[in-house]
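Researcher: Can you fold this with zinc ion in place?
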Amino acid sequence: MLNEDASVQIKYWGVRGSLPSPLDPRDYRSRIQEVLKRSKSAWKENPDLSEEAMFDSLPPYLAGVVGGDTTCVELRSGEEQLIFDLGTGARRLGYDMLARGHKGDLHVLMTHTHWDHIQGWPFFAPGFIPGNHVHFHSCIPDCEQRFTRQQEFEYFPLAFKDMQAERTFHTYDQGDSFDIGSFKVKTEALIHPGGSTSYRVDQGKKTFIFATDTEFYGPELKALIKKKKPFFKGADLLVMDAQYSLKESEQKIGWGHTAMVIAVDCAIEWGVKKLALTHHEPAHDDASTYRLFEEALEHNRQYGDALEITLARQGEVMDI
Ligand SMILES: [Zn+2]
Ligand SMILES: [Zn+2]
């Protein structure tokens, strides 16, 4: 019997777009220097300030990192789990699943197979465990061949077929719906070079939508947003591609990504409750990503704070 109030948890294992981008040593050093400078003056002003309070007073780009691993998101509800994409973030997810004692079936929903969405698979420990059964769900008829090619000997020492977990590929047409356990899943085609699929997951009264690698831009933007409304309408949490500044999205037409402020426009039009911005541009340092996030918040304020917006950060957990 489904508990309609059961909490659905989303964890971001990888939020970087296009390419893994670990923190640069120069960036790390300049952050430490800025923290030292800020703490020196704060403690001069108030010698009794606790370390905790000092830390809490730091701006977010100094207090943490957005994260350099590429796309991998986990949804959990009770004992059930869904995984969205297998970017490099899947490596840490795999370790975590081992530590939790995961065994048996697991379900991966693939948006598409660009490198930043598949490269974590050969390092995903549950894929090497006999008795595990990995179900790949996608709208890509040759998905298995694509994973196989990634592990040809010239590129990786171990072949896909030699990984010990059992694997089954489930293929759908765009627009299809299917069930995984108590999750009702619906697919929708996104605009991206080579195509990408968005997944809407309904469980009881909760709705989660994952929509990355998608371009909302161009002269037909308003019509496109309206056209997609039936699929995105009323999501409790939408995790959406927001790789670019508005200027970058003008310069990179056809690259398949969306500007943060346009993601806000989409979510408002669709009546989404909470929007999490993801697939962060690897060329942006964290300070720049937070500046774009501020612009997105300001854009939302102009609509009277129509929705809740958050920046997806690696390691973070969100409840729906
Ligand atoms: Zn991508
Ligand atoms: Zn892509």
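Model: Folded with zinc ion in place. The first helix runs from residue 25 to 45.
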